[in-house]
Automatic annotation (TrEMBL), chain A:
A Pfam family hit: oligo_HPY
UniProt similarity note: Belongs to the ABC transporter superfamily.
Name under which the protein is recorded: Oligopeptide transport system ATP-binding protein
UniProt-annotated location(s): Cell membrane
Classification via SMART domains: AAA
Organism: Terribacillus halophilus
Record bears the keyword Lyase: no
SUPFAM superfamilies: P-loop containing nucleoside triphosphate hydrolases
Gene Ontology BP, a term: peptide transport
Signal peptide: none
Membrane topology according to the record: Peripheral membrane protein
Annotated GO MF terms: ATP binding; ATP hydrolysis activity
NCBIfam families membership: oligo_HPY
Annotated InterPro entries: AAA+_ATPase, ABC_Ni/Peptide_Import, ABC_transporter-like_ATP-bd, ABC_transporter-like_CS, Oligopep_ABC_C, P-loop_NTPase
UniProtKB/TrEMBL annotation, chain B:
PROSITE patterns associated with the record: ABC_TM1 (PS50928)
Source organism (scientific name): Terribacillus halophilus
GO biological process terms held by the UniProt record: transmembrane transport
Name of the molecule in the record: Peptide/nickel transport system permease protein
Major localization listed first in the record, in broad terms: membrane
Native organism taxonomy: Bacteria, Bacillati, Bacillota, Bacilli, Bacillales
Recorded topology in the membrane: Multi-pass membrane protein
Keyword Transmembrane: yes
Signal peptide boundaries: none
Length: 340, 308
């Protein structure tokens, strides 16, 4: 068994708004092992970003509130740390790469300084030495002329280059966990592959674990070792990446997999959507959040939250269909049962 | 190349301002000797008019004035014949400039501070307190504030001189009275700018680096938030240092502020022209300096002669 580096248990996060309280994250638990890449997938609003931002303590409070749960980094609960102690963890043990590289760098500060700042904040390194370390990081993220690039400002970099700089900032202190919040969403497809490769290579070099948030299952297949599927503020299925693609056990995962456009398809099929809309998180349903959109939903799905059914080692799905008492799927489909 | 081009444009701007002012000034009814017309015989008036070239057609007057202006000769005041406009400006400008500079420094220092404090405590007590001060600063005119300051600080408590100009103590009350409004405007401006910056993604990046709140605000917040405020400082600076009629009148300060107003009432043509040109030169030069300084504050701005 691998060492559990980061463990999130029963995390609950909500936001107060004028319309009421949004239950953004509801009882989420997962873990990351040392040197592992865990992907969190799910549609917009499923709570992916809020989950990782809570790990980093980046949720603005108020309006946000972490109502319950713990975030254990090597056994230490980050949610219980004082602000000052948390500052020491942020950027040194856990760091983060954000979605939009165009706006995530300070436009009036040299990029080199922005990397060096991360180093001088956490390590007892100053001046020239910090600069050299920063230049080394620029080189390691694959940017040529690092010494020259150190002196430049973000507007002199392309989107892909800026994301490399963001990665350099995040990895400058050799963190144990890197949280990547849709790091390639804002980039061209060719650049996406480069940035993902870079992250994978640096992960191996630095022995860092990565939590990769994405809604791109292609990225998941390429990069991740384990996958957590989020829906309606909950993790509905967790599995090793091969298992998830070949033996998914949650109807939402089926829907996600079916909705991937197939470039090799001989006939021009229409794309397969998941019909319906995500649940209203102001007043989350008491049963399975996916039930209203689920082709296979049963009475119990609406009434009661499914527990996590263990399918295989490391594979869990929160779906009543996996209960031994549930009727066979075939029957359900044959009966054409659909819950409105 | 950029600088040369800018300098030429500045000259052109000043020429246009001077010409327009000259024309508008001549179209105002009346002349400097209107009040003397009843007392003096017609021949004398003719002579005086001739002395100031007022009997010539406007086009000729304009050419004559421009000829002198090129040599920086602003002519003599009609009201006080012994004084050249150059010497009026030279005598009055230092007091006005000192007063204006002090007011600017105070308005900037306190205004920025209030704005930052308000933004960092958004929707909390300090925010409301700062903005309350700012609203008062904007809504209470200086001719109310100045007498109030005099009444309490000078008359009732006797801490500071009532009026006049001389020692630095004399300058405290007029500086405060002059600074109040720009201070409030800067505070409100800085607050909204700072609030906008606080929501930017790069602040989140910096936060994720584990910087303390102070480092976050100083290194990443203020510098970006201050950019829009700077463009506002130029005109403010000029309007403050060229003197204000009201404050100089109330505190009996020998600045040039009163000449702006008096010269217009008296149709003192050379003084109107002189003070206006002085004001516009300062404004144009200050704007130029501000534009140059942008380059150092915001690296995204490159000064080129256009179309690069």
């Amino acid at each position: 068994m691998l060492e559990r580096l980061l463990e999130v248990n029963n995390l609950e996060v909500s936001f107060k708004t004028y319309g009421g309280e949004v239950q953004a994250v509801r009882d989420v638990s997962f873990h990351v092992d040392k040197g592992e890449i865990l992907a969190i997938v799910g549609e917009s609003g499923s709570g992916k970003s809020v989950t990782v931002q809570s790990i980093m303590g980046l949720i603005p409070t108020p309006p946000g509130k972490i109502k319950n749960g713990e975030v254990l980094l090597e056994g230490q609960d980050l949610l219980k740390l004082s602000k000052r102690d948390m500052q020491k963890v942020k950027g040194s043990k856990i760091s983060m790469v954000f979605q939009d590289p165009m706006t995530s760098l300070n436009p009036t500060m040299k990029v080199g300084k922005q990397i060096a700042e991360s180093i001088t904040t956490h390590q007892n390194i100053k001046g020239q030495e910090a600069k050299e370390r920063a230049i080394d990081m620029i080189r390691r993220v694959g940017i040529s002329n690092p010494a020259e690039r150190y002196e430049q400002y973000p507007h002199e970099f392309s989107g892909g280059m800026r994301q490399r700089i963001m990665i350099a900032i995040a990895l400058a202190c050799h963190p144990k966990v890197l949280l990547a919040d849709e790091p390639t969403t804002a980039l061209d497809v060719t650049i996406q592959a480069q940035v993902l490769d870079l992250m994978k290579n640096l992960k191996d070099e630095m022995d860092t674990s990565i939590i990769l948030i994405t809604h791109d299952l292609g990225v998941v297949a390429e990069t991740a070792e384990r996958v957590a599927v989020m829906y309606g503020g909950m993790i509905v299925e967790t599995a090793p990446v091969n298992e998830l693609f070949h033996n998914p056990k949650h109807p939402y995962t089926w829907g996600l997999l079916e909705s991937i456009p197939d470039i090799d398809a001989a006939d021009k099929k229409r794309l397969v959507p998941i019909e319906g809309a995500p649940p209203d998180l102001f007043s989350p349903p008491k049963g399975c959040p996916f039930a209203p959109r689920c082709k296979y939903a049963m009475d119990v799905c609406v009434e009661e939250m499914p527990p996590a059914f263990s399918i295989d080692s490391g594979h869990e799905a929160k779906c009543w269909l996996n209960d031994s008492r549930s009727p066979a799927l075939k029957e359900l489909v044959a009966a054409g049962r659909q819950l409105s | 190349m950029y600088i040369v081009k800018r300098l030429l444009i500045m000259l052109l701007t000043i020429w246009v301002i001077a010409s327009l002012t000259f024309l508008i000034m001549k179209f105002i009814p009346g002349d400097p000797f209107a009040s003397d017309a009843d007392v003096l015989p017609e021949e004398v008036l003719q002579n005086i008019r001739a002395k100031y070239n007022l009997d010539e057609p406007i086009a000729v007057q304009y050419v004559l004035y421009m000829r002198d202006l090129v040599t920086f000769d602003l002519g003599f005041s009609i009201q006080s014949e012994t004084r050249s406009v150059n010497s009026i400006i030279a005598d009055g400008a230092p007091a006005s400039a000192l007063l204006g500079l002090q007011a600017l420094v105070i308005a900037l220092a306190l205004g920025l501070l209030l704005g930052i404090v308000a933004a960092l405590n958004h929707n909390k007590v300090l925010d409301y307190a700062s903005m309350f001060i700012a609203i008062i600063g904007i809504s209470v005119p200086s001719f109310i504030l100045a007498p109030l300051l005099i009444k309490y600080f000078a008359v009732e408590w006797g801490m500071l001189p009532v009026a006049s100009w001389g020692t630095w103590q004399h300058s405290i009350l007029p500086t405060l009275a002059l600074a109040a409004t720009p201070l409030a405007v800067i505070a409100r401006f800085m607050r909204s700018s700072m609030l906008e910056v606080t929501n930017q993604n790069y602040i989140k990046t910096a936060d994720a680096k584990g910087l303390s709140k102070t480092q976050l605000v100083i290194r990443h917040g203020i510098r970006n938030a201050i950019l829009p405020v700077i463009s506002f400082i130029g005109p403010l600076f000029v309007s403050l240092i060229t003197g204000t009629f009201v404050i100089e009148k109330i505190f009996a300060i020998p600045g040039i502020g009163r000449y702006f107003v008096d010269s217009i009432f008296n149709r003192d043509y050379p003084v109107i022209m002189g003070t206006t040109i002085f004001f516009s030169v300062l404004l144009v030069v200050t704007l130029f300096i501000i534009d140059l300084s942008y380059r150092y504050i915001d690296p995204r701005i490159k000064l080129t002669s256009g179309g690069e």
